[in-house]
Amino acid sequence: MNQEFRKIARDGLWDNNIVFSQSIGLCPLLAVTGTATNGLGMGLATAAVMVVCNVLISHGRALIPPEIRIPIFVVLIAMVVTLVDMVMNAWLHEMHKVLGLFIPLIVTNCAILGRVEAFASRRPLAQSAADGLMMGLGFTLALVVLGAAREIVGAGTLFADAALLMGDSFAWLETVVIDPYRGFLLMALPPGGFLMLGFILAGKKLIDRRLAARQQRAMPIGDSLAENS
Amino acid sequence: MSRRLPALRLVQPDSQVQAIMGQVMLALVPATAFGLFLFGLPAMFLFAVTVLAALGFEGICLSLAGKPVRATLLDGSAVLTGWLIAMTLPPWAPWWIGVVGSGLAIVVGKQVFGGLGQNIFNPAMLARVALLVSFPLEMTTWVDPAPPLSPGAPAWFDSLAITFGASGVPDGVTGATLIGHIKTEFSQGRRLGEALVSGDYGALKSFLGWIRGSMGETSAALLLLGGIWMIRRKLITWHIPVAMLLTVAVLASLFALIDGDRYPGPLFHLFSGALMLAAFFIATDYVTSPSSPVGQLIFGAGCGLIVFVIRTWGGYPEGVGFAVLLMNAMTPTIDHYVRPRIYGRDRKGRPLDLPAGNDG
Fold it and tell me: CA A6 to CA A106: how far, in whole Å?
């Protein structure tokens, strides 16, 4: 049981990360990651949608006829996204103004439909909730990492306007990394998103390769043979 | 040489690449020397920094990729890339512009694709466009020609301060390039005649290059000289440069005939900006241009068309970088549709009818 949840967490955050491994959901990723704050907001909104959708669909999976499951998923996801949109508009109004266009578009994020179809529609409630949470957090991680990298290189700051967008309690996040900095506009523009994502993906591959090599070394010869066979 | 073991020759620089790169650099020498003379010490510092940075980034990338570092560095391709970037930079730009440009060209433009021969876009133009988009102020600060020992030339320490210090270019010695100037004048509703007079335009001056502009782009005459020498040495064929220059010249003549008050003539276009440098040294890059002669004609004409359109109606005064990059992106398509016919087959690759089955 515990093992299963640990695997779900590991898949969501790293091994099967929506962005870094599955390379899906790239549209919101590239669109909003001009700054780390925007990435964090978008990531958390998406994570919330994923958890609620996974729970709803896992709970009702016995009632959903397989022939029309996709329209049902879409309607459910659209409903949840509308709720999140309204909630953000009410309580995170400044952030909603920045991300406004992209919040309704969470409904088209293939990652959500993908998790619902691949996981929640055939697994029990608790596992589905955990999967939604971990995949959502993994997506948030990707958005924050990419947003932070672009923001540092592009403007020399980190989590700029966090207090304005998310409330005063987040003011401690705001940092000026490089001062004074001329700004590197390319990184704030869409091509910078593609470039930085490419470098980050390459970095992830490098880390994975190092980890695999270390595991190989640590493993006794008998085990490694058994694994290869 | 004779005492070397034969096996060691495997890690020697590719002699053919080295020979070609060397001759291209030789063809660039007159225009470069003139540019360095025209803009003095700060230009020389920037040139050195840019070329050294290109070598440095190439070395780092090669060692990360586990490829032979020394042999590939010596093939001259990184030096040439750095050299070309330096030629397209404003001559008194700060040192970090050269370093960032070299980094973009070598890392993003060349090595992530797999190194020499694998890149889709011309590294030098990619760097130039990325710099222009990112640092519009530094990339459009043009100084008056100030050869060493002339009254306006900065002394040794002032030159160091211009390139490496935080002070930057002193005001009062800068101005717009000609194509930038007439663009501004047009936007204020002036006619071409007035704009050319206020911009102090002379066709001969532009041709020789005693004007404001990028470090190595001002002298159309010396670039033309180097280009023709390269064609005579069979380093490049005439197709791309002629198609590109001719397209610009024909379009410029046509529009100048229609409305001479709003469209500058062909000589103005040919001798301004980066056109001459790009036509001979950048668009002709083997890696990023089509391989067949017809394809090269299409490629050159496309570059010329985009240059003219951007210069005439676009937001930027100069469009050579964008034109070359856009046509680089078209190169695989051109190469796909314009292919030489295979012997014994028709253009679609089907075997030809045998003479027996032919009426004629």
Answer: 27
C-alpha torsion angle, residues B294, B324, B307, B233 (rounded to 10): -60
Given a contact cutoff of 8 angstroms between Cβ atoms, the answer to whether A183 and A154 are in contact is: yes
Residue whose pair of structure tokens reads 């056109």 in the numeric block = B275
Please give the residue of chain A at the shortest CA–CA distance from B127: A186
Q: For residue B8, give the amino acid letter.
A: L
Which residue ranges make up each domain of chain B? 12-177, 202-211+219-337
Any chain B CB within 8 A of the CB of A179? no
Residue A77's alpha-carbon distances to A48, A115, A207, in angstroms, are 11, 11, 34
Q: CA–CA separation, A202 vs B200, rounded Å?
A: 52
> Is residue A104 within 8 Å of residue A81, measured between CB atoms?
yes
**Has residue A228 got a pLDDT over 70?**
no
ipTM over 0.85: no
**Chain B (64-103) residues lying within 8 Å, Cβ to Cβ, of chain A:** 100
Indicate yes or no: CB of A182 within 8 angstroms of CB of B130.
Answer: no
Residue type, B314: G
pTM, to two decimals: 0.84
List Cα–Cα distances, B266 to B137, B252, B291, in angstroms.
29, 5, 28
* Phi, psi dihedrals of residue B140, rounded to the nearest 5°: -130, 25
Q: What is the pLDDT of residues A173-204, one digit of tens each?
A: 778 877 777 788 888 888 889 999 999 999 99
**What end-to-end distance do the CA atoms of chain A give, in Å?**
27
Check: CB of residue A83 under 8 Å from CB of residue A56: no
Res B1: pLDDT: 40
